[in-house]
Amino acid sequence: MSTPNLLPMAKTLQIAADRAHDDTKSVLPAEVVRGVYIENPPGAEALKLMHLLIGKAGGRMAEDVRHELRLADIKKIDGMRNHSRATLRKLFIELAGAVIVFDDTEAQCEIIGGFLDRARLDYRHEVSDDLLVAWWFGGAFREMAEKSCHWAIMDRQTVFALSSKYSILLFQHIASLVNLDHVTSRTFTVSELRALLGVPDGKMERWNDVNRFALKPAIAEINQTSRMTLTATPRKIGRTVASVTIAWEEKPLEAKKEARRELDGSKVGRKSRRDGMAEAPVRVFPKTGGITYSPHWIEIKRAAGCNRDNSLIAADFRRFCDAKGISLDAHNIEELFSSFCAKVGHV
Question: What is the DSSP string of 307-332?
Fold first, then answer.
């Protein structure tokens, strides 16, 4: 998925410059991939173009210079549409509307500006498919990139394989957190999650709609095509979902190979295969022992507000399932465990 920075004094620009010749990865400032610019979020195709522009600029992304890319090179990228001048124009309009809001805590000020200053589509040789794309990054983005000391190294093939803006925005956000010491999950309020996913005001106002149409499909797509497995655990206050914890863990080797085969193969039928995966049991509760070394089950227990001993809660839950005739690989085993933990509560 990504490799976040482990050297706090290093600069994002230096890391990007060091990886300038690796066309399979893009180095992006964490401030971008965590959605700081989220005002007027662009759609999936525009987000893919954003990744491509930043990756192409590399260590020069903070410079006030002209960057160039030819349409013929864009068409070679698997996962990017077969773009024309007309479709690229629309995407650049979307990116021009995306707003950077960069909080410079050292200077104690917020910087607000456009992601792009301008773009230029030189079509003098368009007939020979040699249209030249040029762009200049906006001042707010350049200032943010210049000061950034946190980054994510994104797998381009995975980004370009994702089909919705919800998938891309969630993937890039989690990618900036993966491998940070002792961080395997993050909890978001519902409003924070809506902002992260780029859900517009007035759309999907109910949690059930956000979950059904944005979050669940995004997680299913990321789990199918990346080296990580994501899970989402809602936490209720009364009958209302107040927050959602998203946890991640690295897939075992064979599952990583399957994700790679999915990326390398035809995308035809990918959604059908993904829907089939979503219907199959994803988790199996441990048949023996506690859950101390099972981050996913620990997170469900924590999100449910339960602080019972990890070995005791596991044994009690297995007895509960046995008494009810519930299989430990039931399709709703995660929801059952969450409800059990909520009922058991505090010791």
Answer: -S-HHHHHHHHHHHHHHHT--TT-TT
- Cα 277 from chain centroid? 19
Query: Looking at this protein, which amino acid is placed at residue 19?
Result: R
Structure tokens at 238: 């009364």
Enter the pTM of the model.
0.75
Instruction: Give the distance from CA 210 to its chain's centroid.
Output: 16
Residue (of 220, 221, 212) closest to 241 by Cα position: 212
What is the pLDDT, as a whole number, of residue 279? 45
Q: Which helix (H) or strand (E) holds 341?
A: helix 333-344
Question: Which amino acid is it at 254?
Answer: E
Amino acid at 268: V
- Residues of the chain scoring pLDDT < 50: 4-9, 278-281
pLDDT digits over 267-285, tens only? 777 877 777 654 444 578 9
Of the candidates 316, 248, 249, which has an alpha carbon nearest to the alpha carbon of residue 285? 316
